[in-house]
Amino acid sequence: MKRDSLAFWGRLTIVLASVVFAILLLVGGTLAANYKGMGNLIKVVTLVKGQYLFEVTPEKLVEGAIKGVVESLNDPYSAYLDKKTYSALQEQIRGSFGGIGILVGMKDHYLTVVKPFPNTPAAEKDIRAGDIIIAIDDKQAKDMDTDTAVNLMRGPVGSKVELTILREGDEKPFPVQLTREEISVPTVEGRMVPDENNVGYIVIGQFTENTGEEMVRTIAELREQNMAGLVLDLRDNPGGELNSAIKVADQFLGKGPIVHIDYRIGKDYTFDAEPDQLNMPLVVLVNKGSASASEILAGAIKDAGVGTLVGTKTFGKGIVQTVFPLDNGAGLKLTTARYLTPNKNDIHKKGIAPHVVIEQEIHAKQDKQLETAIKIIRDKIHQ
């Protein structure tokens, strides 16, 4: 057994050394110049095997080495993704997951239903906003963080979960059995502005694979209600899927570039708009929480001159990440390109300045930015 263990660790050492050697070749280094660095890696592995107090698996060491390679880039947007994190990211990009269809939050130490989504298992079982979740299966939910709660409620489609619910006005909690289904959380919400004839309002919360189609559908619905001008709210939109942002931008731009993708390796690429724009007054709300894909959209609208940006300067994330699948369900999120606005402005770490700067106080009851946007749209409609 000991001989097998030594042989295995010997193979691991050779693999790690080979990895380092390959890295040196890729970055143009030489073995002679970096011999000590590679030797140190082998020495560390040997010391861990022979001297470390606790037992550690070879798999854990290999994963640690991979993380170290990525962390050495000093890029906050590049990351090694373990199986669980990679799966969650894929769900976020798809905009769908196996779940029961509720939004939850914390209220007075209790996990509380903020809202159930229509046509989901939660809605079908009459779970209501304000319901307190006492337990998820056999786990008590008091003081449970929302991330843990969400992970417990999500799972494979067709699997079951039981919630113990306490409803306002009831003395005793009651159990609710739910069967998980594929849940698609809407990323686009639209409505006509009350008391404002012909002004539409659309919020995009993030960009997933479904956002482009949701936007097309929402615009069509508001047009049927005689929308003559639109306020598009991208505040606190963290970004997401690149192609969805391009599809949304294509609704507003008549022709010309939407975004330029600039690669270090490989051919640069420009996404161009199709000539079928919305062609109506447009105001876009942005703030420091508007990042990445939402900045692609805002930058395209600003450079093309088809809308007015209102709010505060955007976050300033002008680089693109590609997600690569790895073995054993893991993944690698790696910065592979930067993007430039249609006028070839690099906004990374700079952000996009709005045409009209309006500060918004945190927790203020009055939304000055939205009020300003509506006034601008109203004036444009009546010009």
UniProtKB/TrEMBL annotation:
InterPro entries noted in UniProt: ClpP/crotonase-like_dom_sf, CtpA/B_N, PDZ, PDZ_sf, Peptidase_S41A, Tail-specific_protease
Pfam families per record: CtpB_N-like (PF22694), PDZ_2 (PF13180), Peptidase_S41 (PF03572)
Top-level lineage group: Bacteria
GO biological process, one term: proteolysis
PROSITE patterns cross-referenced by the UniProt entry: PDZ
Record domain PDZ: where: 86-154
EC number: 3.4.21.102
This protein's UniProt keywords: Hydrolase, Protease, Serine protease
GO molecular function, one term: serine-type endopeptidase activity
Database matches in SUPFAM superfamilies: ClpP/crotonase, PDZ domain-like
Protease keyword on record: yes
GO CC, one annotated term: outer membrane-bounded periplasmic space
Family, per entry: Belongs to the peptidase S41A family.
Protein name as catalogued: C-terminal processing peptidase-3, Serine peptidase, MEROPS family S41A
Organism: Desulforamulus reducens (strain ATCC BAA-1160 / DSM 100696 / MI-1) (Desulfotomaculum reducens)
